[in-house]
Write a structure and sequence with these properties.
- With 218 residues, this protein is α+β, with helices and mostly antiparallel strands.
- The chain has a single domain, classed as Roll (Nuclear Transport Factor 2, Chain: A).
- It has 6 helices and 5 strands; from the N terminus they run ααααααβββββ.
- Strands 1, 2, 3, 4 and 5 form a 5-stranded antiparallel sheet that branches.
- A hairpin with a 5-residue loop joins strand 2 and strand 3.
Length: 218
């Protein structure tokens, strides 16, 4: 048997071993997760959707919402006001925002992501960060990636132009919380876990500012 073939078999064996190890360490995360923040009652009212349906053949909407559903109608209404809006790129941006905001929360420094947080969300996140600091707790976290991203809901108010889109995320990370003496009090620094969140982003369509704000978490 040639040396090249032996090396190939060894590498294949290592790859299989690593895959099995990764599967074995997946779990359900508990610990210092971002607090759930509900949108104010006045914003949670069921939004009236303008007349009209999603254009037949709009694959961008059909890829993420059931045709004819309230979510599809809301997305179509957003596109009528802002034709450049597309669901696929939005979800890609939401995924990036999720990763960036989640890790900023874990690190305890919201300065870089503050412009993307609605005031109630920023206050809730900061409150947990301050509480950790007062207790002498420190979170060590490594983000491994977002495993799932999907549309959970979409609403549009034609009167105000306010659009709200809720997105489901499944993230995977390694996180552990240590006390002032360095003892692990939450999580496991050697194991990864999955975190499931549904975040709601809002923006007034048709405005120059393209940024969506995180207005609720759950």
């Amino acid at each position: 048997m040639s040396n090249a073939l032996i090396q190939l078999l060894v590498l294949a064996g290592i790859a299989i071993f690593l895959i099995l190890r990764l599967r074995n360490v997946l779990g359900t995360r508990d610990g210092f997760e971002p607090p759930k923040v509900e949108t104010p009652d006045e914003q949670r009212a069921r939004f009236e959707v303008i007349d009209g349906t999603a254009e037949e053949g709009d694959q961008d909407i059909a890829d993420h919402a059931e045709p004819g559903s309230p979510q599809a109608e809301a997305l179509a209404a957003m596109k009528q006001v802002e034709p450049s809006f597309a669901v696929g790129p939005f979800l890609g941006g939401a995924k990036s925002a999720y990763e960036m905001i989640l890790m900023a929360f874990e690190r305890g420094d919201l300065s870089e992501v503050r412009p993307f947080l609605a005031e109630p969300v920023a206050e809730a996140f900061q409150s947990v960060i301050d509480q950790r600091a007062q207790q002498g707790l420190k979170v060590e976290a490594q983000y491994l990636g977002t495993r799932e991203t999907g549309l959970a809901n979409a609403e549009y108010d034609p009167t105000s132009g306010l659009a709200e889109i809720s997105v489901r995320f499944v993230g995977e990370l390694i996180a552990a919380t240590r006390d002032a003496e360095g003892n692990v009090v939450e999580g496991d620094p050697r194991k990864s876990s999955k975190q499931r969140d549904t975040w709601t982003f809002a923006r007034r369509m048709g405005q120059d500012d393209p940024n969506w704000l995180l207005v609720a978490t759950g």
